[in-house]
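haha ok so turns out i had the wrong file open the whole time. this is the CORRECT one, sorry everyone. sequence first:
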Amino acid sequence: MKQTEMLAMILAGGRGSRLHDLTNKVAKPAVAYGGKYRIVDFPLSNCANSGVDVVGVLTQYESVLLNSYVAKGGLWGLDTKDSGVFVLTPREKADTGLEVFRGTADAISQNIDFIDSYDPEYLLVLSGDHIYKMNYDKMLDCHKEKGAAATIAVMPVPMEEASRFGIMITDEDDNIIDFEEKPANPRSTLASMGIYIFSWPRLRELLVKDMDDPDSEHDFGKNIIPTLLNSGDKLVAFKFEGYWKDVGTIDSLWEANMDLLDENCELNLDDPTWKIYTEDAGGLLGLPAYIGPDADIDRAYITQGCHVNGKVKNSVIFTGATVGQGAQIIDSVLMPGANVGDGAVVTRTLVADNIKIAAGAVVGSADSKEILLQATDV
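then structure:
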C-alpha cells in the first residue's frame, strides 16, 4: 500500500449527553448544523481541503446514522484510488477482548494495525464535534519546522472559561512547557482545541505501553500529553486564529447557529476556496426556498427546500423546514423538517428535526432559551 505522509483519525464516538435528547439516537457529530450541514462535515471537509487523503472515523455511541453517512467518502472527494474515508468501530480482539473504546488514546491504540497499513510519518488526531475551518497542512509545516514530537492547536479563551479546557503553558518560542487539564486556577488562557499532530513512530511507542497500563485512563489529555512532557519530548503550540466552536451543549449549538447571522462571522460558509461539503439529503438542496407573498423576513439564514409564509426574524431555518401562515419565528433555530403551524409563535428556541408545532401554539420566550424535542399542541 502507498505510504501516506499524514493520516487523519477523527474521534467521533462520544455520547454528547449535554445535548440531551438531540443525541438520544444520533451521535453528536451527526447532529445538524448551519441549515444543511452535519457537524462532522467540518473536520472531513478540512481534511479534504488540506490534502489529507486518508481519514479514519472512529465511531461508537449510536453510530448507525453516522457510520452510513461518513462511509460516503465521495461527499468530500475522498473516494479516489489513493484516498478514502474509513469507518472504524470498536471490535473484539483475540488478545485483548476489548469491545469498546476506553478513552481517546485507546480509540487510536485499537486501530494501530489500520494506521500501520499506511505507514504514515505523522498522525493527525481530530475531534468530530467541533465547528471550524483549518488548513492542517500549515499545522504540519509548523510541526516539521519545530522538530516536534507533538503539535497541539491552541487558541486563547477568556480567563473565566479557561477551567473548562486543557490549558497550555508555553515559552516565547511556543514550546509547551506545562499542561493543565481543566485547572481550577489557570496559569494561561491558551486552550487546547483537541487537534493534534504526532510523529507516528513516537506516538505508537507510547500507545502500546499505555494500552497495558492498568492505572491509565487511556486519554490524550490525561495520559499521553503528560507522558510526552515528562519524557522531555518537544511539544509545540500551534496558535489558531479564526472561528472555532465546541458545540457540546444546547446553548453552544444554538449560539453557533446564531453566529451565522453576523455578516462579520469568521466562519464564512460561502468561501469557494474552502468549501464545506455535505450530503444533499432527499434532493432538497436542489430545490429553491419558497418565500410566500405574506412572508416577513429580517436577518435570517434560510436554506434550500424551505417554505416560509410567516415572519422570520434573526433565525436559522434548516433544509425542508416550514413556517406557516402568520407564524412568527424569532431568535430561533428550526432544524431539518421542522414544521411550524399557522399563527404559532416560536421565540429563542431550538426546534429539533421533524418536530411539528401546532397552529396557534406559543413556544419559548424572550428571556429564556429552550429546546423543543416533541410535538406541541395548542
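The chain is about 20% helix and 30% strand.
again sry for the mixup
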